[in-house]
């Protein structure tokens, strides 16, 4: 059996995964910077923190993208729902709720 600590192929895979994880964090940070601006705008203009119709459209769109990318649509929906719920929490906080 190969030792995971010295397996060059495994180390290469893990470096790639680490790079992707770093990119995901930076992308999420940018997404949340933008959604925080949206939350402040919504608070200023008295718009509700949540937009269920947009959320449904986004989930449908990303499920389709996931299918095209050979990614489980159920996983993508759970991931997006987690992000949406966090964004709504931020928007509620911007309104002082």
Automatic annotation (TrEMBL):
One GO biological process term: salicylic acid biosynthetic process
Single GO term (MF): chorismate mutase activity
EC category name: isomerase
Coiled coil feature spans: none
Pfam families referenced in this protein's UniProt entry, alphabetically: CM_2
InterPro entries referenced in this protein's UniProt entry, alphabetically: Chorismate_II_sf (IPR036263), Chorismate_mutase-related (IPR051331), CM_bact (IPR010951), CM_dom_sf (IPR036979), CM_II_prokaryot (IPR002701)
EC number, as in UniProt: 5.4.99.5
Chorismate mutase domain location: 4-95
Gene3D superfamilies: Chorismate mutase
Keywords: Isomerase
N-terminal signal peptide: none
PANTHER family the UniProt entry points to: CHORISMATE MUTASE (PTHR38041)
Protein name: chorismate mutase
Species: Aurantiacibacter marinus
């Amino acid at each position: 059996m190969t030792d995971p600590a010295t397996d060059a192929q495994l180390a290469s895979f893990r470096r790639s995964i680490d790079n992707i994880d770093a990119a995901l964090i930076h992308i999420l940070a940018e997404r949340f910077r933008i959604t925080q601006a949206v939350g402040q705008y919504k608070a200023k203009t008295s718009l509700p923190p949540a937009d269920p119709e947009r959320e449904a459209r986004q989930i449908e769109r990303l499920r389709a993208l996931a299918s095209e990318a050979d990614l489980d649509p159920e996983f993508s929906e759970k991931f997006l729902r987690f992000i949406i719920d966090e964004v709504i929490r931020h928007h509620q906080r911007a309104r002082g709720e």
